[in-house]
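Quick entry, no commentary yet.
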Amino acid sequence: MEWLMPDAGSPQPTSRWPVLLLVCPNLDRMLSHQNALHAAGYLVASASTTIAAREMAQLCKFDILLLDQECAQEDEADHLQQRHVSVLLERGTSERELLLQLSQILQVASASAAVQ
């Protein structure tokens, strides 16, 4: 996993790409989604269980949770979804659909930030 925290001596950037937490128990799907997100320029951390994701979320700040449908019924998933903007990934979600959903969420967030 990449270290996502800034160096102590580095200045804070004024804007940045969101940091994503991808939770998917299927390693092939996780790698496929992760590779597409990395190729699009996103910082991504991945976990294969919601328990691991919860522990990661305590160590690093994540902006958006990408939650595989297989994990959505777990108790830990509810806790994570309450704390983070989340996207539920249905089984069979393609990389293109994932990137489209993510860009739509970011457009809405950007529009609401501009209004405030």
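second:
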Amino acid sequence: MADRYDDPDHNDHLVLMTEGEAVYKLGDKERAYYVFGRIYEIYGQKGFAGDQTTYPEFYKKEKAARGE
């Protein structure tokens, strides 16, 4: 998705969140973990607002389960 929106470094918040939400809802938790991790890395907790507040919870729980 990032290639289509000229975001090869995966830095654009809108592109990342759109991809993250889509793959999460489609059940691709592995990809969602990567994308939400990237958002968290770049923007921190402020990268998640409104309806998106469940995603950092998912990311943190998954990160803890992986021992990272």
